[in-house]
Amino acid sequence: MTFRFSRTSFRLTRLRPRVLVLLATATTTAALLPLVTPSDAAVPGRHASPVIDPNASPMSPHHGVAPADAMRPTAPVLAGSGWSVTASGTALTIDMHRTDVVSALVYQPRRAGGGSRVTEYAIRLSMDGRHWTKPVATGTLADDTTAKTLNFAAQGTRYVRLSATTAAAGHHGWAAGIERISSSSSPAPLASRAAVQLLGDPGLTAPSTASLPVDGWTVSATDEETAQANDRAANVLDGDPTTVWHSRWSPKTVRFPHALVIDMHRTTAVSALTYQPRQTGANGRIGTYAVSTSLDGTSFDAPVASGHWKDDATAKTATFTRTVSARYVRLVALSEAGQRGPWSSAAEIRLSGPSDPAVSGSWGPVTGFPLVPVATAVLPGNKLLAWSAYAVDRYGGSNGYTQTAVMDLTTGRVTQRRVDNTGHDMFCPGIALLADGRVLVTGGSNASRASIYDPRTDTWSSTTDMNIARGYQAMTLLSNGDAFVLGGSWSGGDGPRDGEVWSASAHTWRRLPGVPAEGAMTADPKGAYRADNHMWLHATSQGRVLQLGPSKQMNWITTDGNGSITPAGTRADSQDAMNGNAVSYDIGKLLTLGGAPAYQDTPATRRAYTVDLNGGGRPTATRTGDMAATRAFSNSVVLPDGKVAVFGGQETPVPFSDATSVMTPEIWDPATGRFTPLATMAVPRNYHSTANLMPDGRIFSGGGGLCGDCATNHLDGAIFTPPYLLNPDGSERPRPVITSTPPSHVALGSTLPVSTGSPVGAFALVRTGAATHSVDNDQRRVPLTFRQTGEGSYDLSIPSDPGVALPGTYLLFALNADGVPSIAKVISVG
């Protein structure tokens, strides 16, 4: 292919310095807007210290400090020159007067006087100022002065509208301030101080896209090195990251610009380009770039993406300002990221297009929370309980109180509460869902404390302190309704972390000297405080527990008397897999996913294993299909049909960092042992993130961070709709409906009559989950045997073994012949 373009045709305006956007109208209007001084200016992801206990202890040294990349926002602050704003009613509308990719709005509440604070909000986008999207982000903000980063799926837009739906309690609120200027709705210039900023393309995998297959593609370049190395353009499509394209450097260096053109040999909808820098050496990493498209390979449109990539080895994605129909995609390199020379290189180039909802599922808007949801539990009444630590965005010390929130999954509203009465900072705890539906939370920052949340009364209370102080411990309910805990050297001082059991009847703890934690530890080089964390526990019959990870050694644990721990073999050829997880997808069958040999700074694995307990003796561990991505700090959820979805994580786990984030979820099918990619996420979900199955068959995924003054706090979540609920056009598939009202409680071994409005092919119970630090030990799926007694009438057989149907709260799903689940009925079993 012959290229004809001038060097100046690809000249980009030098990136403007980061400036702050003042949302003001005329002089009289400006006095009413929530301005901040330059020293108070909002910095994305950075927070002013909240009003907290002045005697609060600093962050635990066990966590270390947030890495340098956690202090820098991933997405660039967009320059506001040429922008204007209108204020009308309870909304502010920013007109950028150009189309740009936007991924977040940063809102700095008023610092003085306490008023003029938004609590509930909605963000909408528009290309023309007349036709607006449905909200891309909604939520509830903490009533404090910290800057709030309101994330949403990165996409091209010209207009961004922030609507304040309510103000902080006891304040007139920012919404009221806007009402006073509603008569002033004409555009006004923007100045240099700000209450609001917009963030651009974060360079992560474009949200809600799917990678396009490269079959039949070809690629050409303006120049390539062939004299001294085989660094041809074709290497960017070969799937091998060790081979590279490199611009020509022998016998004479070709200077910028350098261009690659991919010919897909078919016209395809394209919305993003992903660039993988070379993995051997830094020379040639692309810095400033532009991407354009063409139907004929000769006439290329104006760039659909441009910017500057960071000087590191991580993959970068350029999100297009709009989805385009194209055959050719051209990437032009205009500078070298580290200014090392006039070279360009690439290991791999991939293109993405809009995902098919029937194959990949879809994401709802990002919902803001008034805290980082570090721990979450599904409650009856279609609600989700979440909590962080003594503060909404940071942890440290033993302060005796916890910030909590409850999300109403029906309305999306989130309410916040500080829990003081238990004297318990519940950061980094163990969690077990009790047989009666209450939530038992142990240890963490207040390492010996134990608290119980009762969803029936929406109250917290204390129970007896543990005998051994712990943090990062593992917990599970036992088949007899008691709760078992093991490990947890993160807090509570030195000493052994033997097992102990909480009695549901006496509310007291009993030590198990026969269950030392040492036999269940990983070989982490940093010792016990990293080696006995976040264990994967699965309760079985007669009060026994299988500890199946993250250590490669599995163990059977008994909990009667002094207890015992007995080796149960290794997890096939798996290494230690800290910060991976295990999910019970069928009776006596579990799937383990990912993890890393050490807690952090060690590459994770993509491996997955099944562990089968049904052989009568030693568990059988077998390697199943690998995930497409390596993951640690991810979260996994079992679905009503027995498939398992995994969200987020990092290729190399580093607490508080968003580097090497895995943005594409995957779903595992037990029938094939294979993983399938799902629609990509809008926000990274790594350390301190969670995921939970909801009663409507959708999944909540949220959280990440909690590092105080950092850019990686994610005070939000989003709802994922799995592909089993969707048609290719995104509309919902018809669901079966359970028309009868089951009793609130069913006994083990009983028969449960159920009526449905249409034929049903399967029924399943899924125990409600409680997740933190990648672990949700109590979730499990129990497929039910049944017989049809009439048209739309069925008798379901509830298992008689409490080791199969662990006592507690379950979601009862009916599934039709196509695997589409009903909205669940919530019942108590046991």
From TrEMBL:
Q: Which SMART domains match?
A: Kelch
At the top level, the lineage of the source is Bacteria
Q: Which Pfam families match?
A: F5_F8_type_C, Glyoxal_oxid_N, GO-like_E_set
The cross-references to PROSITE patterns, in alphabetical order and at most eight, read: FA58C_3
Q: State the signal peptide span.
A: 1-41
Identify the residues that the record assigns to the F5/8 type C domain, covering every copy.
Answer: 39-183, 199-354
Key words, A-Z: Signal
Name-wise, this protein is Discoidin domain-containing protein
Please give the organism: Streptomyces melanogenes
